[in-house]
Amino acid sequence: MTTPAPTDAELLAYLDEALPADAMAQVERMLRSDSATLARLAEVNARRDAGVHSLSEIWRRNHLSCPTREQWGSFLLGGLPAAEAEFYRIHLQTAGCRRCQANLADLERQQSRQSAATTSRRQRYFQSSAGRLPSSG
Amino acid sequence: MPPIAESDRLLVERVRTGAPEAWQELIARYEGRLLAFVESRLGNPAAAEDVVQETLLGFLTSLPNYDERRPLESYLFSIAAHKLTDHLRREGRRPALPLSVSDSSGGWQPVAGGRRASSLIQSGERHALEEAALVAALAEQIDRLRARGQWQQLSCLELLLVRGWSNQQVAAALGQSEQTVANTKSEFLQRLRSLVRRGQPDPDVFPELYAS
């Protein structure tokens, strides 16, 4: 079975690192093996640079239909009506919203208790970056 | 669109004054979701942590230019996406994009009126105004669907307009008839056109709204 060619909307999402991880990898494979896909990617990029708006890009970049983090919390607790919860599942798995996937994965990790590794990682981030904070006063 | 959280605004204000505890709090609030975002793509926890570290440093470096009207989470994710792209390019995983579209590849031209692409290059200000008009119209429509509990229609529109799938693909994915999908799309675009038309947009810059 051949892999379907990515849509223009998916190519734009690829440029913004916004497709789900498996779809990103799939587009990368096609770009390496298929010059026509690479030419299409350059074309959608040129169109964007020329100022043409894309509904997909505007919708995605502004997260117009993304549930909030609090709503994802309710989803995890099973506190949503069935039809709404089904929308969340499709948003995550079929529409493949990468940022919501990350938020949900993080919430799930938090639910399974904050580990010592998390605390030490946060300390490391802080120590390696605090020197760049604006000077106080 | 998610509202700009007051708690984020206050947190950034404190980070701007150089308060270490505010910076620590911002890291604690956001690093987990950023790490999950990067890790899903790299599959290598150590490399993912490095990219998140670069993201946080990038945030501090760009802090003087950060516009607080922009949601903090979106801003951090966009920095993470750039850092991730850089990392993948260095690793040779992400192919370089050609600098120009050659004529032989069917180079893009605007769909309406035969205007040349060069005439479409607009000022950033005009482009932002046009986008704001479209965001407002889309948000109004999406809120209306949510308020009416029309979740299936919203799923259908996400797949059609955000993923760019065909009616046939969407119908198969959602177990709906192609006619239902076509009706949902047509009704949505019709309402959107009428909302956006108030701002008299140029068909050349909104081709999807005017495609037959």
Largest sheet properties of chain B: none
The proportion of strand residues of chain A reads under 5%
Secondary-structure-based class of chain B equals mainly alpha
Give the helix proportion of chain A (percent range): 55-70%
* Total helical segments of chain B: 9
The tally of strands of chain B reads: 0
The chain-level mean pLDDT of chain A equals 91
What's the CATH class of the largest domain in chain B, please? Mainly Alpha
Q: Helix count of chain A, per DSSP?
A: 8
Helix content of chain B: 55-70%
CATH topology of the largest domain in chain B: Arc Repressor Mutant, subunit A
Shape assignment of chain A: globular
Structural class, from secondary structure content of chain A?
mainly alpha
**Poorly predicted runs of chain B:** 102-119
Q: Tally the beta strands of chain A.
A: 0
Alpha-carbon distance between the two ends of chain B: 28 Å
Q: Could you say how many structural domains of chain B there are in total?
A: 2
- From the structure provided, what is the oligomeric state, counting identical versus distinct chains? heterodimer
Q: Quick check: average pLDDT of chain B? A: 85
The percent range for strand residues of chain B is under 5%
